[in-house]
């Protein structure tokens, strides 16, 4: 099977930050879910790479983000093999060529500290998608596990506008429910949830309820189903068939052209059996082919992300 794949979330950069000895380009590297050779073997054409600071860093600084971007260029990007995707043209070139694309994203805008300059610098460095929070609250907004359950602050709302003006896409995956709806009300652009499943099937707080899913669908956003076992099933073992039921559910709400993938590989310590690393996207494809047409499967695996990014990345 040669269906191209686009994966909207992984935490490889966190593992490389934590352990400089890990080698993304070593085919035998056993400490990563996502390696260059696995991406290649699975026909992954574009991988999102999250800048996510470890929880032990209690005072996030902008130069931490710069360290991650440096790691991407030194340890992940490799001439002729993997390159940064910043523009629509880059996207077209990687989809049609031999190289794999890497899209830089930020998960948790804590160290931007409401600075439009820092936001612009990240844009200049190629960051194209930002989740304003991780699970807790910061200057911009509250995340889903923040006990006060607030939404966006005044500064957070101007950040939404800055991102929209620059062309940085916004990610609702970790936002609190109030923040999700603030984003929906404040952002003129479509937004996405890169790694969340359907709460109707699994009640984890990181999953999205039907009203949220319908809003993302109506706004032509994207929903990245994620391979985190406890976001797939509660109280019983997760399976690839169970993951496909989340796709079925989003499709039943009208989202067949909005479903994308956001594996969360290298951000998880439990895996769905058979879907344990980036070399196994074909297992998901096999299961999807039992239920969906060729065009629909291609949509879920890559085309739905492609159409979205093609519309929203800067032309050059
Ligand atoms: Zn996450």
Explain what the structure shows.
The structure is a single chain. This protein has 316 residues and is an alpha/beta fold. It is built from twelve helices and nine strands. The chain has one domain (5-312): TIM Barrel (Alpha-Beta Barrel), CATH 3.20.20. The chain is 39% helix and 12% strand. Helix 6 (154-166) links the parallel strand 5 and strand 6. Helix 1 (12-18) packs across helix 3 (62-76) and helix 5 runs parallel beside helix 6. The chain is globular, with a radius of gyration of 18 Å. The protein starts with a strand and ends with a helix. The relative contact order is 0.15. The structure holds zinc ion (ZN). Zinc ion is lined by residues 107, 173-174, 195, 267. This is Membrane dipeptidase.
Task: Tag the structure with descriptive keywords.
TIM Barrel, binds zinc ion, 316 residues, 3-stranded parallel β-sheet, metallodipeptidase activity, alpha/beta, 6-stranded parallel β-sheet, 12 helices, Metal_Hydrolase, Membrane dipeptidase, Pept_M19
SSE order and pairing:
Elements: E1 5-7, H1 12-18, H2 36-41, E2 44-51, H3 62-76, E3 82-84, H4 88-96, E4 100-107, H5 116-124, E5 127-131, H6 154-166, E6 169-170, H7 177-186, E7 192-193, H8 210-218, E8 222-225, H9 229-232, H10 240-252, E9 259-261, H11 281-289, H12 294-312
Parallel strand pairs: 1-2, 2-4, 3-4, 4-5, 5-6, 7-8, 8-9
Helix pairs in contact: 1-3, 5-6
The structure holds zinc ion (ZN).
The site of zinc ion has 5 residues, from loops.
């Amino acid at each position: 099977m040669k269906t191209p794949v686009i994966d909207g979330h992984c935490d490889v950069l966190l593992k490389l930050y934590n352990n400089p000895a890990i080698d993304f380009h070593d085919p035998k590297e056993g400490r990563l879910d996502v390696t260059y050779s696995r991406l290649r073997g699975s026909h992954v054409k574009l991988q999102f790479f999250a800048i996510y600071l470890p929880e032990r860093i209690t005072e996030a600084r902008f130069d931490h983000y710069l360290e991650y971007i440096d790691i991407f260029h030194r340890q992940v990007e490799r001439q002729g093999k993997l390159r940064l995707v910043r523009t629509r043209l880059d996207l077209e070139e990687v989809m049609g060529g031999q190289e794999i694309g890497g899209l830089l994203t930020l998960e948790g805008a804590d160290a931007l500290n409401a600075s439009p300059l820092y936001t612009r610098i990240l844009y200049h460095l190629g960051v194209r998608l930002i989740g304003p929070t991780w699970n807790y609250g910061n200057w911009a907004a509250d995340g889903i596990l923040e006990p006060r359950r607030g939404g966006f602050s005044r500064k957070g709302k101007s950040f939404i506008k800055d991102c929209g003006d620059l062309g940085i896409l916004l990610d609702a995956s970790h936002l609190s429910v109030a923040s999700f709806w603030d984003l929906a009300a404040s952002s003129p652009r479509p937004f996405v949830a890169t790694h969340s499943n359907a709460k109707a099937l699994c009640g984890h707080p990181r999953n999205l309820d039907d009203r949220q899913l319908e809003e993302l669908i109506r706004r032509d956003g994207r929903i990245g189903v994620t391979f985190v076992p406890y976001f797939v099933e509660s109280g019983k073992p997760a399976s690839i068939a169970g993951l496909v039921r989340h796709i079925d559910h989003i499709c039943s709400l009208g989202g067949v052209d909005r479903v994308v993938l956001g594996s969360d590989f290298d951000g998880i310590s439990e895996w769905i059996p058979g879907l344990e690393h980036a070399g196994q996207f074909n297992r998901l494809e096999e299961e999807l082919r039992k239920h969906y047409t060729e065009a629909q499967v291609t949509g879920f695996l890559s085309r739905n992300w492609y159409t979205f990014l093609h519309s929203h990345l800067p032309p050059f």
